[in-house]
Amino acid sequence: MQIKVESVSNVEKKLFIQIPEEAVTQEINKAYRVANQQARIPGFRSGKIPRALLEKRYGASIEDQVFQDLVKNSVSHALIEKKLKAVRVTEISDTDRQEGKGFSYTASIEVRPDIEPKDYLGVSIEAAKHSVSEKDIDDVITRLRESQAILKPIEGATQVSVGDFAGIHVKIPGKEGTDQSYQVGQENGQKALDEALLTMKVGDTKAVTLSVGKEGEEPKSLEIELELKSIKQKIVPELDDAFAKSVGPFETLADLRTHISKDLEADVLQKSKQENIKKILAVVLEKNPLELPKSLIEGEIDFLRRRVEDQMLESGLKTYPADFSKEKLESELLPQATTRVHEQLLIEAIAEKENIGVSNEERDQQIALSARQARIPTAELRAYYEKTNRLGSLDFQILAEKTLDFLLSKANIT
User: 3-state class of 200 per DSSP?
Assistant: First the structure.
């Protein structure tokens, strides 16, 4: 087989392939032998059908399939022989079959660019600066206290005040009424509801017009019948050692604060690390411009778009907003997808140059860790990765983490 490679660009190649007559004839004869065994023609037993009859009835389809198989197998062989890292075969053209001269065609392919990464060691960046303040610790404790708060009836109260929790019964015309708890005067509350409740006494009913609607849509009026049934106040636990014991294995409030501080410090360190890595990557990308295969960018856009659509479904949106579209989303995702592909290709190139790899043991450890976090058996998660062909993605995730840690260790951070 003769193979000639023409470079259109760093990511586009053309293969001119000539398959000799002997190989073509061999494959055609093999195809007719298979057809002879499988064909059903009245008056002839399987395997005893004249070749001329098979050619007359099935010749075009048999030879078309032979040429398709020849293209598929010869392209794969050519890519290996010429050591081309193909991304996608974009076009097969100029197919030519001449009796006695074999079969030839041209294959247009996209390939990963040849990358010789440079200037990625000793990158100088300004360190991300984050710290844990006493207010940060106080905020966590406040949330913990809020999570343990209870609503307690206000003895003797007949009218609500701002901040109280009103036990209300809401009746919408044509629907069954519901009991709800509503904090009067809350930041995102209904002004009409607040105004009504502040003028009511326990047991009173009143017709109220609310303004309702999804964000970004024209609000609509909703008539409800409102009944004030009870008045309660939120009681949060006292900030003392007893509270600390109630939320975990802590003897004192000081122990709880120390534990929270350590957790926040760990979060801050991780956040700072990720910001530093992002800065390093930005520098390395700028110093290593690449021509990127279009199909890799298209695949990344598709991945990001499906992720956005999944998030839309989780939030209750089944279709794009009226002023949006799939095409507009993909256009907005293009810069992010381009950067991600650029990063992935450079990370792989740096890992190869620095002999950074992923061992079976490292993969097993990552699967076991992910399984523990998801609270599922390790074997079940491994089977999922294998069934969905995601072991390659997992390996890249580990490789990327190791490579980025390597770049971080070599960076000049001030």
Answer: coil
Answer whether 0.90 is exceeded by the pTM: no
Which tens digit of pLDDT belongs to each residue from 289-339? 999 999 999 999 999 999 988 888 888 777 887 778 888 889 999 999 999
φ/ψ (deg, to 5) at 332: -70, -25
* Residue (of 330, 350, 337) closest to 283 by Cα position: 350
> Total domain count for the chain?
3
CA distances from 12 to 86, 95, 334, 389 (A): 9, 20, 20, 27
Distances (CA, A) of 59 to 20, 27, 28, 55, 170: 20, 13, 10, 4, 77
Alpha carbon of residue 393 to chain centroid: 12
List the CATH number of the domain containing 314.
Answer: 1.10.3120.10
Counting every residue written for the chain, the total comes to 414
- Boundary (domain end) residue, out of 57, 84, 111: 111
Spell out the SS3 assignment of 316-355: CCCCCCCCCCHHHHHHHHHHHHHHHHHHHHHHHHHHHHCC
